[in-house]
């Protein structure tokens, strides 16, 4: 019999009367199916008395600091709100228990109550826009929060002392499929010389995992009397804020400038070179305007994934739309200007481990033979050394 260690995250209310347990802090949209949010609440029956326990999940986009919320105007839009009664449990809220929930209920006793949320559909991924050193308060972006609280009615005011709030992440994870290699080319003609210089850029794939090395193929044909002096390649991230105004943050994720193989002299054809770049957060950690899937101080934070629109979802309902492209700039001789082209590509979260099948499909399979040893851990993310006290600020901007 196989024994596995199952990590469970927990958080307790300030008065110690309510504790919430979750098996994960990150939940994924797999396009054809989505992760469920399954957890357990442990309540003190003597404290609850004739009151109830409710659950609330909120998806919100904040585009201004909290101290700017004046005269009843809030710089925040809620995309989706789901509420349900957890205790006493209602028949319509019952859902088949996961193996981890069963293990928790056996461990915690009769005062533990399971709960189940479906991950909201047609809502944006978690995104955090890096603030500049002059900004304060919470960063702009999309966040997801689960709250369990005690009250007489579902609409009662939530008090901090007897509630538990947990920030989770919703991410999109699509398995890579065969897609055409992205390719772009441009030509440039010059006065007083025949022919046209051609610059071509081809990527080895249309989609990359975060941190994966990109192979960027550059080909140049120069049948003219001009020459090319150097080349600069940048991986750019574009974050379109499309809720309240048209605003785009452009950030350099990584770049390379070289004269290797240059200059490309006149009447030269067939120049071809492959350059390697790696779009990775460590290359641009402190750049203001960079879109991430969490706070920069946490060690599991990565670059925000490409936003993939599906169905009839309007951009305004996504808050932040993320895209990526490779920008190639080839500098020519004196008085000849530059040649610039851009090639779009998609960036996904880091490759997930394990068997990615629907939770329902796991019931009754070989996994039933596995035993779980529960390992409890506080519901907080580990900060990078040197970033523990950094909330926002201290960042530098990078122009294009």
Automatic annotation (TrEMBL):
<dbReference type="Pfam" id="PF02752">
    <property type="entry name" value="Arrestin_C"/>
</dbReference>
<dbReference type="InterPro" id="IPR000698">
    <property type="entry name" value="Arrestin"/>
</dbReference>
<dbReference type="InterPro" id="IPR014752">
    <property type="entry name" value="Arrestin-like_C"/>
</dbReference>
<dbReference type="GO" id="GO:0007165">
    <property type="term" value="P:signal transduction"/>
</dbReference>
<protein>
    <submittedName>
        <fullName>Visual arrestin</fullName>
    </submittedName>
</protein>
<dbReference type="GO" id="GO:0002031">
    <property type="term" value="P:G protein-coupled receptor internalization"/>
</dbReference>
<dbReference type="GO" id="GO:0005737">
    <property type="term" value="C:cytoplasm"/>
</dbReference>
<dbReference type="GO" id="GO:0001664">
    <property type="term" value="F:G protein-coupled receptor binding"/>
</dbReference>
<dbReference type="Pfam" id="PF00339">
    <property type="entry name" value="Arrestin_N"/>
</dbReference>
<comment type="similarity">
    <text>Belongs to the arrestin family.</text>
</comment>
<dbReference type="InterPro" id="IPR011022">
    <property type="entry name" value="Arrestin_C-like"/>
</dbReference>
<dbReference type="InterPro" id="IPR014753">
    <property type="entry name" value="Arrestin_N"/>
</dbReference>
<dbReference type="InterPro" id="IPR011021">
    <property type="entry name" value="Arrestin-like_N"/>
</dbReference>
<dbReference type="InterPro" id="IPR014756">
    <property type="entry name" value="Ig_E-set"/>
</dbReference>
<feature type="domain" description="Arrestin C-terminal-like">
    <location>
        <begin position="193"/>
        <end position="350"/>
    </location>
</feature>
<keyword id="KW-0716">Sensory transduction</keyword>
